[in-house]
Amino acid sequence: MAIVGKSIESTQIAFNSSTATDVTFRVGVVSTSVKHLVITTDVDVYLNFDGAADNTCFLLTPGCGQFSIDNISFTTISALGVNSDGSLYILAMRD
User: Fold this and answer.
1) Domain containing 13: what range?
2) Which of 10, 59, 80, 92 could pair covalently with 53 via S-S, beta carbons 3.0-4.6 A apart?
3) How many whole angstroms separate alpha carbon 70 and alpha carbon 65?
4) Contacting residues for 14 by C-beta, under 8 A, at least 6 apart
């Protein structure tokens, strides 16, 4: 079913445990904040929004399954592997 008036993006981030990897969600030359997010990962990963991820950030594990966050406003998501390389899978919706 189409979601009228919404913009949905899907992407994945291949990350490692030595350097944070970022993805920026933008529309044209003007950034539009993401308002709803569904994420999952295949290995433990630190996440940060609008800043580089490090070992003090939110920890997401594969055991969380699909993790959904509402009412979040960000333009960049950053991932850093806890102990290994992996992938973060993302669905993001804007206003």
Assistant:
1) 7-94
2) 80
3) 16
4) 21, 85, 86, 87
The structural domain count of the chain equals: 1
pLDDT digits (tens, 9 = 90+) for 37-67: 899 999 999 999 999 999 999 999 999 899 9
Q: Tell which residue, 69, 92, 86, 77, has the closest CA to residue 23.
A: 77
Distance CA 79, CA 16 (A): 8
Looking at the domain assignment, is residue 54 inside a domain?
yes
- The CA distance from 47 to 52, in Å, is 8
The reported pTM is: 0.84
Cα(19)–Cα(44) distance, rounded to whole angstroms?
A: 15
